[in-house]
DNA sequence: CGTGTAAGGAATTCTGACACG
DNA sequence: CGTGTAAGGAATTCTGACACG
């Protein structure tokens, strides 16, 4: 497994992301609620974003300006594989359970 | 002028830097006092660090473990051009003032 | 639907100081 | 010298809710 590059390290707080993107904190949290963005959390619950997240948020902002709804943006992102289709996640997790039950090494 | 890469963008708070480096916030602030590290500041005064800063702090931690004093670490860093020699800074700024006074475009 | 705001609490960060050594 | 800690204040972030539309 390769080290994650700086671009994907989740280290930026929401206030800084707000400055970087020009979006309000409210908007950023809402896009998370709509499953467009997935920040990490510190132990005490603060959101942490990566530079990739910041870029993604700027794309989202552009699409919102073009009049797209969050749901439509989400569909686009799934098509473009920028986020994983929930159906695929369910499939993958089921597979993991099967492997676990039938003795595939996972540790 | 080229865009600064992610590596040099000052966006990480001291708490996160502390986790990333294993250093206490007290240590990180002290190394700043000793001019080994130069965080940016938000409008209200919070320190912001880059990934480069995090790497530098880890080097500092290694050297401290080797028994070097902060002053010695600073000398090494100046020699290695990781930070600028204060004498050079003074020279450069004087030059800037001369240029300004004698009409070199600076805007 | 997408975003603003006021609300109250919890966690973060800041500075200057005292402590030890 | 380098680091810990308690102190008090200011700024940040969180959630759930009400508002408008």
Any key phrases for this structure?
Multidrug-efflux Transporter Regulator, Chain: A, Domain 2, two-stranded antiparallel sheet, homodimer, 4% strand
Explain what you see:
The structure is a homodimer of 107-residue chains. The first copy, chain A, has 107 residues and is mostly helical. Chain A has a single domain, classed as Multidrug-efflux Transporter Regulator, Chain: A, Domain 2. Chain A has 5 helices and 2 strands, in the order ααββααα. Chain A has helices spanning 14-21, 25-33, 51-65, 70-79, 86-101; strands spanning 40-41, 47-48. Chain A has a two-stranded antiparallel ribbon with strand order 1-2. The longest helix of chain A is centred in the last third of the chain and has 16 residues, at 86-101. The two termini of chain A are 14 Å apart. The model of chain A has no long low-confidence stretch (mean pLDDT 92). The interface between A and B is medium-sized, with 12 and 12 residues. Chain A binds a DNA duplex (21 and 21 nucleotides) through helix 2.
Give a quick rundown of the structure.
The structure is a homodimer of 107-residue chains. Chain A is built from five helices and two strands, in the order H-H-E-E-H-H-H. Chain A has a single domain (6-82), classed as Multidrug-efflux Transporter Regulator, Chain: A, Domain 2.
Outline the fold blueprint:
The structure is a homodimer of 107-residue chains.
Chain A: H1 14-21, H2 25-33, E1 40-41, E2 47-48, H3 51-65, H4 70-79, H5 86-101
Antiparallel strand pairs in A: 1-2
The structure holds a DNA duplex (21 and 21 nucleotides).
């Amino acid at each position: 497994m390769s080290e994650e590059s700086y671009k994907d390290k989740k280290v930026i707080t929401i206030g800084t992301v707000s400055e970087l993107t020009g979006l309000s904190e409210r908007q950023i949290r809402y896009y998370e609620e709509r499953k467009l963005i997935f920040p990490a959390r510190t132990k005490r619950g603060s959101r942490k974003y990566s530079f990739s997240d910041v870029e993604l948020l700027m794309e989202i902002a552009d699409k919102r300006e073009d009049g797209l709804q969050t749901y439509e943006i989400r569909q686009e992102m799934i098509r473009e594989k920028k986020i994983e289709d929930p159906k695929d996640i369910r499939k993958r997790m089921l597979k993991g359970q099967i492997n676990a039950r039938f003795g595939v090494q996972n540790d």
